[in-house]
């Protein structure tokens, strides 16, 4: 029983980080129609940067904040390269982000080397119904939930958020009322970078990251995002949590090496199901 | 208010506008009439700054706002959000002035724009354009897909904007009879060129215009008018 609780809570925490990476996919895709293949680089760079800043003597909090902002700046840079030229087709932008993701490997190896890096998060454990659970798990869950609440407020209540939603809803009309769709796309990329960076800062104390951790993070994040058809941030949260718990249970009771396969299987099933539902709608 | 000289717009190799010139004076209501694909919407999108002309000059005094063909609302945003986004460039985001013009929208303000009837959507589209406090309103296919009663109500609002607020209006219409009824002057555009222009009364009497745009006889429109009247009231 206490093992089950342990798996579920660690799964929820892991799922929250997938959801954060996934919401970055969603925010960028909604506004620009680009699937950002460099999304996995943001958490990796933020995690690696936090570790470096902490060893240089920056206190906790400040180091994480700088790393998250760095994620935003890198997101903006990826955006400028991928969609900065108006009229670039989304498919071309997608290929550009894929190239940038590979380029990020080189930069990360030069700056941080190729060994996994971690740093201590919240120390100490909490006793929940007989299970000893690391406090870091709860920190991840609380921060992620607050972030998703803020994201909903941002899109639902602020004028800039509505402007982003307008670009997603009808880009032609957005331009008619004077919204620069390219500039909004860059805002989305920066926001995607911040969300990815936040995920990296939260997950690194739980799982050491190295330059190639982006594959796992991006696949899981993308699988979470697929739950909402790459359009709804809140569904990415649901998707992330389902995925995280499923993987933690598989790792706990069977074999931890199957984690990514679980994500891939769920993602493919959903995509096939969504595609068949879409074609069924079109035939109707 | 608006001066366009020898405007040329191309989509790749295809020429959509081939040397179009037109003028709108202050407080004027001008019609732009022509068949599908003549370049009417291309002209509006160029005036709105969405398309870049290959050659020619255009000068807009003040602000121009477009009500695009097919309404083009943000369907998954509320009516109020649609209106507020119309003020992206201008600043005053309070939609109260649009609700005073179209009181019916007040009660729909929390509804998603995509759930509204065609006539209501057209009101939102006009309202969204008005949110930028334009000096010229360019309306693309006001009547398309709407019942005559609904069209008449929208026309009444446009007349009021023109007469009481002095707003210049450029009305793009396939329904030439309607356009000639409302406007003082008209341009007829075919295959990217202005083929005729002048006062609506003159144009309506020209045999070529009658044959091409008014369907020859004059009572045909009346019949169509009555038979379609009740369509829009059900939703």
What does it look like?
The complex is a heterodimer of chains A (284) and B (235). Chain A is mainly alpha-helical and 284 residues long. Chain A has a single domain (2-283), classed as ABC transporter involved in vitamin B12 uptake, BtuC (Orthogonal Bundle), CATH 1.10.3470. Helices cover 75% and strands 3% of the residues of chain A. Chain A has helices at residues 2-32, 41-55, 62-83, 90-112, 135-157, 159-169, 171-176, 181-203, 214-226, 233-253, 259-283; strands at 125-128, 131-134. In chain A, strands 1-2 form a two-stranded antiparallel sheet. In chain A, helix 2 packs antiparallel against helix 3. Chain B is α/β, with parallel strands linked by helices and 235 residues long. Chain B is built from 10 helices and 9 strands. In chain B, strand 1 and strand 2 form a beta hairpin. Chain B is globular. In chain B, 44% of the residues are buried. Mean pLDDT of chain B is 89; it is low at 217-235. The chains are: A mainly alpha (284), B alpha/beta (235).
Which descriptors apply to this entry?
heterodimer, A: 284 residues, mainly alpha, ABC transporter involved in vitamin B12 uptake, BtuC, 2 strands, 75% helix, globular, B: alpha/beta, 3-stranded antiparallel sheet, disordered C terminus
């Amino acid at each position: 029983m206490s093992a089950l609780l342990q798996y579920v809570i660690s799964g929820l925490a892991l799922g929250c980080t997938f959801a954060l990476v996934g919401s970055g996919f969603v925010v960028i895709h909604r506004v620009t129609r680009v699937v950002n293949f460099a999304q996995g680089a943001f958490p990796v760079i933020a995690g690696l940067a936090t570790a470096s800043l902490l060893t240089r003597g920056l206190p906790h909090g400040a180091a994480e904040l700088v790393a998250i902002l760095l994620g935003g700046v890198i997101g903006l840079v990826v955006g400028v390269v991928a969609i900065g030229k108006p009229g670039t087709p989304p498919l071309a932008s997608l290929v550009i982000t894929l190239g940038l993701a590979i380029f990020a490997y080189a930069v990360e190896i030069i700056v941080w080397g190729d060994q996994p890096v971690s740093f201590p998060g919240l120390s100490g454990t909490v006793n929940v119904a007989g299970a000893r659970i690391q406090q870091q798990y709860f920190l991840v869950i609380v921060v992620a939930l607050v972030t998703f609440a803020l994201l909903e407020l941002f899109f639902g209540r602020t004028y800039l958020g509505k402007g982003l939603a307008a670009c997603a809803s009808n880009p032609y009309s957005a331009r008619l009322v004077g919204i620069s769709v390219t500039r909004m796309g860059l805002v989305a990329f920066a926001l995607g970078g911040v969300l990815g960076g936040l995920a990296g800062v939260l997950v690194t104390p739980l799982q050491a990251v190295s330059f190639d951790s982006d594959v796992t993070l991006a696949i899981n994040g993308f699988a979470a995002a697929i739950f909402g058809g790459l359009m709804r941030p809140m569904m990415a949260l649901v998707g992330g949590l389902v995925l995280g718990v499923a993987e933690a249970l598989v790792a706990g009771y069977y074999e931890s090496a199957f984690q990514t396969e679980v994500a891939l299987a769920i993602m493919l099933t959903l995509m096939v199901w969504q595609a068949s539902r879409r074609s069924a709608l079109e035939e109707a | 208010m608006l001066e366009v000289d020898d405007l040329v717009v191309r989509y790749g190799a295809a020429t959509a506008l081939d040397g179009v010139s037109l003028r709108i004076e202050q407080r004027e209501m001008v019609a732009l009439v022509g068949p599908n694909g003549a370049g009417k919407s291309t002209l509006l999108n160029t005036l709105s700054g969405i398309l870049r002309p290959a050659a020619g000059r255009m000068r807009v005094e003040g602000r121009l706002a477009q009500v695009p063909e097919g309404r083009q609302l943000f369907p998954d945003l509320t009516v109020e959000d649609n209106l507020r986004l119309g003020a992206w460039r201008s600043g005053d985001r309070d939609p109260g002035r649009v609700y005073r013009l179209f009181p019916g929208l007040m009660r729909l303000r929390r509804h998603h724009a995509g759930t509204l009837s065609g006539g209501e959507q057209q009101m939102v589209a006009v309202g969204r354009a008005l949110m930028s406090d334009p000096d010229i309103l360019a309306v693309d296919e006001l009547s398309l897909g709407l019942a005559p009663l609904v069209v008449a109500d929208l026309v009444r609002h446009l007349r009021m904007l023109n007469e009481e607020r002095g707003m210049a209006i450029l009305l793009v219409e396939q329904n030439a009879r309607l356009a000639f009824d409302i406007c003082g002057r008209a341009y007829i555009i075919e295959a990217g060129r202005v083929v005729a222009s002048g006062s609506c009364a003159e144009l309506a009497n020209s045999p070529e215009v009658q044959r091409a745009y008014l369907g020859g006889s004059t009572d045909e429109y009346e019949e169509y008018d009555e038979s379609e009247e009740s369509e829009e009231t059900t939703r």
